[in-house]
Automatic annotation (TrEMBL):
Pathway: Cofactor biosynthesis; Fe-Mo cofactor biosynthesis. Belongs to the NifD/NifK/NifE/NifN family. It holds the Pfam family Oxidored_nitro. It comes from Niallia hominis. PANTHER family: LIGHT-INDEPENDENT PROTOCHLOROPHYLLIDE REDUCTASE SUBUNIT B (PTHR33712:SF7). This is Nitrogenase iron-molybdenum cofactor biosynthesis protein NifN. The keyword rRNA-binding does not apply. Residues 18-426 form the Nitrogenase/oxidoreductase component domain.
Length: 427
């Protein structure tokens, strides 16, 4: 395995997405939350437009709308004014102040400014800053850093009461950025079927699906409540889905003595057998027989589809956690991985056998000369068309079809759905 960072002077058809967008996505999974993007108005406008196209739901976001003079003389005053306006007008339960490439390059001490503000003010709102420069990482790392900053802030609030008494059969679920709202809901249902109650953070399954929409609100209208976030420290176990959230699980373990189990992926037969085996061992229950039926369906689907995958060449361009997940299921089906591109170098990529290039979708296009299937977000569709390769849209953003946020590719049922989609393109 080799991770190769291509030496290009510019990105052509970028795969990378702003870290700040990942932070905004994480806040959508928290109830009555609002992300405050500390940067120019265009930064927030682009994020809002892209997320609205993908999810087709209202997106909670505000901006400090910095101008040239704010950058020259420092953006602290603009940050505080924007925060106080939001607090007085919208009364959020949670607010994350997210930096951008603009303010990081200018040298604004966002974290220090917010800490100083909170020393002299006690708003009825959980506020935490997150440094998310655009020139590093991508959507996944922005999501990861925001969850870590949230837990760090919660630990600081709860430090005099930790460790807490544990609630029997309560589990924390840390859901990675690559999971759709449908995926998160499916994982919650599986865990609950073994008799556990689940606190999910962030929880986009109840916020970016329209399930709780009751008119317009500038705040997120679903997700984990502030009380549920405080309850994270009372759980008996943490399940992290996606390697990017392992550090968050470790922070909960260090602060509250909560053990954790990491599942890099819940797509594929092997990954789900391990997941269900773990839940059976943890609960002492066999689980619902319905899932045995779903597993039988998956086995039958694998048998039917392996004829279409045998010898077929697949190129994939996705965020690191998502890339790991999709590559594993393609290999289970007998497909040949002919090219892999990711947006940045992450820990999970070092666990893969294949060579991975850190680049853009133009790089993936150069690898697709002999490919049979191209898997990436919607920005890759034209490249696949030029190469006359079957195209499967997965990841973020997807803007030429509806229901992407509800599509499920985890669990036995979700894996079956994904295999059917891929097989039909290869037939």
């Amino acid at each position: 395995m080799t991770i190769v960072k291509l030496d290009k002077k510019l990105a052509i058809n970028p795969l990378k997405v702003s870290q700040t967008l990942g932070g905004v996505l994480a806040l959508q999974g928290l109830f009555r939350a609002i992300p405050l993007v500390h940067g120019s108005q265009g930064c927030a406008a682009f994020i809002k437009a892209l997320m609205t196209q993908h999810y087709r739901e209202p997106v909670s976001i505000q901006t400090t709308a910095l101008q040239e003079m704010n950058i020259i003389f420092g953006g602290e005053r603009s940050t505080i004014e924007a925060m106080e306006t939001i607090l007085n007008k919208h009364h959020p339960s949670l607010m994350a102040v997210l930096s951008t490439g603009l303010t990081e390059t200018a040298g604004d001490d966002l974290i220090g400014n917010i800490k100083n503000y909170l020393k002299t003010n006690e708003p009825n709102c959980f506020i935490f800053p997150v440094a998310l420069p655009d020139f590093e990482g991508s959507l996944e790392s922005g999501f990861q850093l925001t969850v870590e900053a949230m837990i760090r802030g919660l630990v600081e609030q709860q430090k005099f009461t930790l460790p807490m008494k544990k609630k029997q059969n309560q589990i924390n679920l840390l859901a990675g950025s690559f999971l759709t709202a449908g995926d998160v809901m499916e994982i919650k249902k599986i865990i609950q079927s073994f008799g556990f109650s689940v606190i999910t953070a962030p929880d986009i399954s109840t916020s970016l699906t329209g399930s709780l929409q009751k008119g317009f609100s500038p705040l997120s209208q679903g997700g984990a409540t502030r009380e549920q976030l405080q309850g994270l420290f009372e759980s008996e176990m943490t399940i992290a889905v996606g390697t990017s959230l392992e550090k968050s699980a470790q922070m909960l373990e260090a602060a509250a003595g909560i053990p954790y189990r990491l599942f890099p992926s819940l797509t594929g037969l092997k990954a789900n057998d391990e997941f269900f085996s773990f839940l059976q061992s943890l609960s002492g229950k066999k689980g619902d027989s319905f899932y045995q039926w779903e597993r039988d369906n998956l086995l039958d689907c694998i048998l039917d589809s392996h004829f279409y995958f045998s010898g077929k060449k697949i190129v994939i361009g996705l965020e690191p956690d998502h890339l790991f997940s999709i590559v594993n299921v393609c290999k289970e089906l007998g497909g040949t991985i002919d090219g892999l591109v990711s947006s940045f170098s992450a820990k999970v990529l070092s666990n893969m056998e294949e060579d991975i290039f850190i680049g853009d979708l133009d790089d993936l296009e150069t690898m697709a000369d002999n490919a049979d299937l191209w898997i990436s977000n919607s920005h890759g569709e034209k490249g696949a068309d030029r190469k006359n390769v079957a195209f499967l849209p997965i990841g973020f953003p997807i803007f030429h079809q509806i229901g992407s946020s509800l599509f499920t590719s985890v669990g036995y049922r979700g894996t079956t759905n994904l295999i059917i989609k891929m097989s039909n393109l290869l037939m």
